[in-house]
Design brief:
Blueprint: H1 12-35, E1 43-45, H2 60-68, H3 73-81, E2 82-84, H4 90-110, H5 112-123
Antiparallel strand pairs: 1-2
Length: about 130
Amino acid sequence: MKTPYEPPKQPIGGQIFDAVLMLVLVFITLYLPLWLKLAGSGTSTKDYTNPTWQDLGQNATMVEQWTKLGFTPEKAAPIIGTRFDYDFNITALIITFAIIVGYFVFMFVYSNKEYKEVIAEKFSRSNSAR
C-alpha cells in the first residue's frame, strides 16, 4: 500500500520570508515601470485662456460637483485639459504573454511529480470504495 502524499512542512520563518518576498516583488513590479519611465509619461495638456465651465465641456451636474470640491474653472482647467496617451504596444503584449505562459509551463513541469502523486492518491481505484 502506498503512503499518502505529505506536503513538505515549511517553518514559520520561511513563511514570513515568502510573504515579505512576495510584497517586495509586487512593489518592484508596480514601481519599476514608473521608475524606468516606461509608464505614466504619455500625457498631453490643452491650455485654456480664461476658461469657463462651458469651455471645459462641463454640464450643470459636473459644475456642481467641481464647486463642492472647491474648484473654480481656472483651478480645474489643468486637470480637465490633461489627457493620457494610451498607446498599445504589441511587442510588450507578446513578451508579457510569453512570460506568463512560460511561468505556468515551468510550474507545471516542475510540479509534475507532485501532481501525479496527489491525483493518484485522491483518484486511485483502491480509494474508490469510500
